Amino acid sequence: TLYIFRKTTSFTRNILFLTEGTCGKCLPGWNLLNSSCYFFSYLESSTVKKNWADSRADCVRRGADLVVIDTPEEQTSTKIWDNGFWIGITDMQSEGTWTWINNVTGLDRREPNNYGRGEDCGVILYSSISPWKTMFDGPCNYPYHWVCKMDSR
Predict the structure, then answer these.
(1) Which of 79, 50, 77 is nearest to 66 (CA)?
(2) Ordered structural domains, the chain, with CATH
(3) Nearest 5°: phi and psi at 67?
(4) Which of the pair, 94 or 38, is modelled with greater confidence?
(5) pLDDT tier for residue 29 given thresholds of 50, 70 and 90
(6) What is the mean pLDDT of the chain?
(7) Amino acid 109: pLDDT
(8) Are 122 and 88 contacting, i.e. CB atoms less than 8 angstroms apart?
(9) I need a labelling partner for 29 at 20 to 30 A (CA). Which of 40, 89, 94, 97 fits?
(10) What is the C-alpha radius of gyration for the chain, rounded to an integer number of angstroms?
């Protein structure tokens, strides 16, 4: 059984809280969705933001990696996560070829588009065109919150 609750942060943004169900267990401070555990950096500290590389290093230090959005459930749930967070996709290896950190390539979207050059790291932001959050490419040195992902135990 998976129980889903909503909570409003001091920023009055809705965050999805997922509690431990019968399909797996997560470490304290992590949230369960299907068979994966998620760490939302802004829940630990709303003021700490990091660049893409430091965000990924923090995830690795926790035994995880930046989130790879590879299921419809994850894509849907990003709509209610905090705005502005790093995800595990980049085109640093080959400009214009967006690769998830699990080595899956290819996106069928208008974004990421490398508008303005130097935008090599994936970030989820609200779109001014769409009310839904959208994946954008951003400068890797810009500070954002981040979301880590690992398999449940």
Answers:
(1) 50
(2) 4-151 (3.10.100.10)
(3) -65, 135
(4) 38
(5) very high
(6) 78
(7) 56
(8) yes
(9) 89
(10) 15
Instruction: Please state, in angstroms and rounded to a whole number, the distance separating the CA atoms of residues 153 and 150.
Output: 9
Asked if the model's pLDDT at residue 150 lies above 90, the reply is yes
Closest CA to 143 of 67, 55, 61, 82: 55
SS (H, E, C) the chain: CCCEEEEECCCCCEEEEECCECCECCCCCCEEECCEEEEEHHHHCCCCCECHHHHHHHHHHCCCEECCCCCHHHHHHHHHCCCCEEEEEECCCCCCCCEECCCCECCCCCCCCCCCCCCCEEEEEECCCCCCEEEEEECCCCCEEEEEEEECC
Cα separation of 17 and 31, whole Å?
6
Pairing of strands 4-8, 85-90: unpaired
- Please check whether residue 142 is in contact with residue 94, taking contact to mean a CB–CB distance below 8 angstroms: no
